[in-house]
Amino acid sequence: MKLMLLPALALMIVFTGCGGDDRQNSGTITLTSELYEAESYYYALGLSFDEGKEVPTLPDQYRADITVQAGPLVTGGPEVAYLSANTLNPPFALTGEYATEGDARNAFEGLTSVGTLSWIELAAPLKANQVWVVKTRDNKYAKLRTIEVTLTTVPARLATCRLEWVYQPDGSTTFP
């Protein structure tokens, strides 16, 4: 009887894992400014670096670090796609805009530390082949490479951004 329990115990250990952290610290994601209806409010989906996935922007939760939005940045100005973040201090720094996807990818991969940057409120205007650094409300850093950005205004305003991201969860200013 004891010998039969050993294989069963071994299988349980294999299937439950070692309690490791399954969070992703990098990936590619497509965010949109599309709104979804909940009971008494609307929400969008944003990226939570800490959770490593797309999460809802619910009013009673502050899970999303960044969201993509669309609209004019100044009254009467042109409509643009942009990234926003729920932080008290300016969270975005543009490290470069590139003519080709290959140049942007090389710059993104070569960006190994935050360095000295000028921080701004919004990542705007958002375009393909840009490299950004984001400082989260928890004083942690992520780097972003915009792969594709689209903006439509008819029949409704909608921005979509496909981006690659790498997050440094330990709060240091270097990227793995």
Order of secondary-structure elements:
HEEEEEEEEHEEE
The helicity comes to: 10-25%
Ends apart, CA distance between termini: 49 Å
Q: Given the helix and strand composition, which structural class is it?
A: mainly beta
- Outline the biggest β-sheet: 5 strands, antiparallel
**Helical run tally:** 2
Total E-strand runs: 11
Question: What gross morphology would you assign?
Answer: globular
Mean pLDDT: 88
The radius of gyration over CA amounts to 20 Å
Summarize the structure in short.
With about 180 residues, the protein is mainly β. It has 2 helices and 11 strands.
What topology does this entry show?
Blueprint: H1 2-16, E1 26-32, E2 36-37, E3 42-43, E4 45-48, E5 53-56, E6 66-72, E7 79-85, E8 92-97, H2 101-110, E9 130-135, E10 141-152, E11 158-168
Antiparallel strand pairs: 1-11, 2-3, 4-5, 6-7, 8-9, 9-10, 10-11
What would you note in describing this structure?
Helix content is 14%, strand content 39%. It has 2 helices and 11 strands, in the order αββββββββαβββ. The strands form 4 sheets. Strands 1-11-10-9-8 form a 5-stranded antiparallel beta sheet, covered by helices on one side. A hairpin with a 5-residue loop joins β10 and β11 (158-168). The longest helix is centred in the first third of the chain and has 15 residues, at 2-16.
